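Rather than argue in generalities, we reproduce a single protein record, letters for residues, whole numbers for local backbone shapes, just as it appears below:
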Amino acid sequence: MNKLIHAGTKEGDDAIAVLVVDDVEANRAILCRRLEKFGFQYVAADSGLAALVLLRQAVPDIILLDYMMPQMNGLEVLRELRREPATREVPVIMVTARTEGDAVIEALEAGADDYVTKPIDFDVLRARMETQLDKRRNAHQLRRANAVLDERVTLRAMALADLQDELKEEIGRRKELEAEVEIIRKGGVSEDVDLVGLGMLLRGIERASGSLFAAVTGGRGANLAHLAELCDLVGRAMRLLPPGRTVTGAGEMEARDRIKAE
């Protein structure tokens, strides 16, 4: 929803927009003049219904809302504001001539952020407006920070998922190597196969893959250097195997048939 187009001070990106709602023209005039002196922009509405019409078009930064008005009083307007998503979080300061505690409690329970009493102490009003505006700015900054954090968490989760996939692939390759060694052990060993070197490489693969698995399942970021080491160990182990050896498909069946024949 757009921001209100304001009377008062020169319009700018950082200008604070205030909606003044009061059915008494003299009260509106005095309050608007003081707001202009404070450097705020303003729009005035002479009734609760008129205020709701304005708010359907655009939303201010803060609302000064008279308590006692005909047809639709300040509390009724406030309840409407808190029901609408666009105005639910807009700060509202009630302006009232009623000083009894019940009236103040009723306004706060209906969703008012603060209140001032008539006759208005304008220095107090300004301080309370600044407090509510600061709270709103801080809330917006917190939401932005949370959005950035959520994005970072999502990216980390995606990176972790990729590492988990790579780790699963390396574990699969390690199992293939172990199966190949077992077939070689049962079927006789070629003089070209360095089983001592292959065993050392397999122990290195077991250590590296265990460290990576612990890091990934523990929610820590996997060390890419360890992953590179694991890939290197697997590649070196594969190069120690005799040409044509495989543990899958037709190669495995050929190896098993050869063992049976022997």
